[in-house]
Amino acid sequence: MELKDILAFKYSPQIREKLSDIGFTKKFAEGDVILNENAYIKAIPIVTKGNIRVMRTDDDGREILLYYIKAGESCIMSFLGGMHNDTSKVKAIAEEETEILFIPIDKVTVLIKEFPEWLDYIFRLYHKRFEELLEVVNAVAFKKMDERLLSFIQKKCALNQTNTLHLTHEQIATELGTARVVVSRLLKQMEDEGLVLLGRNKISLV
């Protein structure tokens, strides 16, 4: 697949050629950890196929989902950490079979100087991620867990273009930063209300 087909905005032919020349591609299987917390960032990832989920871990080892990175997008955390020679504050995991074009950190400044549209791409990503992080803060602070759970299922289904998710209650609890028993109880309640259908490690939106 060509860069022009997967990137989130229309690159000029020159920058597409530049990215192909300076970048390198790697493939990841579902569940592979692409970036760990506290790791130094040596390259900026651009997803060309698949999806990545970005998680944050607290001091007690509990995790919470921050946002997803889809094909054509990148991780603004990687931009910021890489540019300032800082370590990653998040963990990135392949949601499915994923392919990533990595741009070495030392080439990012050159891209910004040569191609104004690259800087525009970064700002667009920053705006998108900031809004998504605000949604997370708003959900944790103001929404009940049943609302967060239903929203999570809806977003995950939309991301994977399906009405059925193959997930354990433990996996959902991890991504929402709550307990498995809470997820199990709320899912049963949602099934009783006719919102979902439950199967073995399977959840379907009605």
Question: Which structural class is indicated by helix and strand composition?
Answer: alpha+beta
The arrangement of helices and strands along the chain is HHEEEEEHEEHHHEHHEE
CATH class of the largest domain: Mainly Beta
Distance between the termini: 34 Å
Flag low-confidence runs.
Answer: none
Roughly what fraction of the amino acids lie in strands?
15-25%
Number of domains: 2
* Radius of gyration, whole Å: 18 Å
CATH architecture of the largest domain: Sandwich
Give the overall silhouette: elongated
How many H/I helices? Answer: 8
Fraction in helix: 40-55%
CATH topology of the largest domain: Jelly Rolls
Task: List descriptors.
206 residues; Arc Repressor Mutant, subunit A; 25% strand; 10 strands; alpha+beta; 2 domains; 3-stranded antiparallel sheet; 47% helix; 4-stranded antiparallel sheet
Short description:
The protein is α+β, with helices and mostly antiparallel strands and 206 residues long.
